[in-house]
Amino acid sequence: MPSDEVVIEARRLARRFGSFVAVKEVDLQVRRGEVFGLLGANGAGKTTAIRMLCGTLPPSSGSIQVAGVDMVAHARRARSRIGYVTQRFTLYGDLSARENLELQAGLYGVVGARLPVRMQWALDRLELTHVADERAARLPLGFQRRLAVAAALLHEPDVLFLDEPTSGIDPLARQRLWELVYELTAAGVGVLVTTHYMDEALFCDRLALMDRGEIIASGTPQDLLARPVPTPLIELRLSDDAGGADWIGALPEVREVLPRAGRLRVRLHAGSVPEQFIAKAIEDADVVALFDAARFRVSFVHLEHHRGSR
User: Fold this and answer.
1) Which runs of consecutive H residues, i.e. helices, occur in 239-296?
2) In terms of Cα–Cα distance, which of 185, 210, 232 is closest to 24?
3) What is the DSSP string of 165-234?
């Protein structure tokens, strides 16, 4: 169970790139032993937020405390207390898996008698022993992701940041990664994970939803399932998508259209009623076959079909 000790705290955290505001005065807290999820579509601001929390990107304004250290004023000191797995593979492709781990160990001060113990733990726990001497660039994506996680955990950090760690890997690898996350939180590590997979929301103790740089909702998965959704999300299947996404996106009730796996996820403006929108759109288009109304789903109801347990 999470403790009351806060290991990540951000207050009014913001990041601007010229006139573009990528993150808008975000507040969040993560406790020791907790899995905190930061959910949102691509471009919502998740990676920008996590880079600021890790100290790799300075904030435009706001404060950050990680493991009791001011990340803005003492980023180098704070980084020794955290592990960070980036969205893309950033270790050295021309080095072997073992050499990458040895390099990371040296950077984090894992030396002496502690080094072989931590190296063996990383290779065994992440199931890398049989590929330890292969070049990292030649490893399949799933093994590259395992290697990145192993490198982030060598120095036994208090806080672990995972930026979309399961993107592109197979279901079994996803399951094993989440098992490791739970093992770490049971040992008291605070974990912040970003994802755009809605089913992974239920694997978190608490979560926050990001949209266009803002946190629009936060709480436990059960809290969010029970609350009204300010911007309803509908999943539609088109009988013929020739221009369909553009046509739907031009309707006044529509905030954004997200194509996904042969369907469209349509987010409406706050206050819109999904049933009324579908009926009106069908009537206006005079093409009843355009929508399969039986496929309509409201945001978070979709999560009901992916319930899992820790």
Assistant:
1) 244-249, 274-285
2) 210
3) TTTT--HHHHHHHHHHHHHHHHTT-EEEEEES-GGGGGGSSEEEEEETTEEEEEE-HHHHHHSPPSS-EE
What SS3 state is found at 49? helix
Fold (topology level) of 233-305: Alpha-Beta Plaits (3.30.70)
Rounded CA-CA distance 277/269 in Å is 11
Q: What is the pLDDT along the chain (310 residues), one digit of tens a residue?
A: 677 899 999 999 999 999 999 999 999 999 999 999 998 888 889 999 999 999 999 999 999 999 989 998 888 888 889 999 998 899 999 999 999 999 999 999 999 999 999 999 999 999 999 999 999 999 998 899 999 999 999 999 999 999 988 887 888 888 889 999 999 999 999 999 998 777 788 899 999 989 889 998 899 988 887 776 667 777 776 655 556 677 777 788 888 887 766 677 787 887 777 777 776 665 555 433 343 333 333 333 332 222 233 4
Contact 264, 277 (CB under 8 A): no
pTM for the whole thing? Answer: 0.76
Taking a C-beta distance cutoff of 8 angstroms, is the pair 8, 2 a contact? no
| Segment (H or E) for 85 | strand 82-85
Q: Sketch the domain layout of the chain as residue ranges.
A: 6-226, 233-305
Cα separation, 5 vs 67, whole angstroms = 9
Q: Which CATH class is domain 6-226?
A: alpha beta
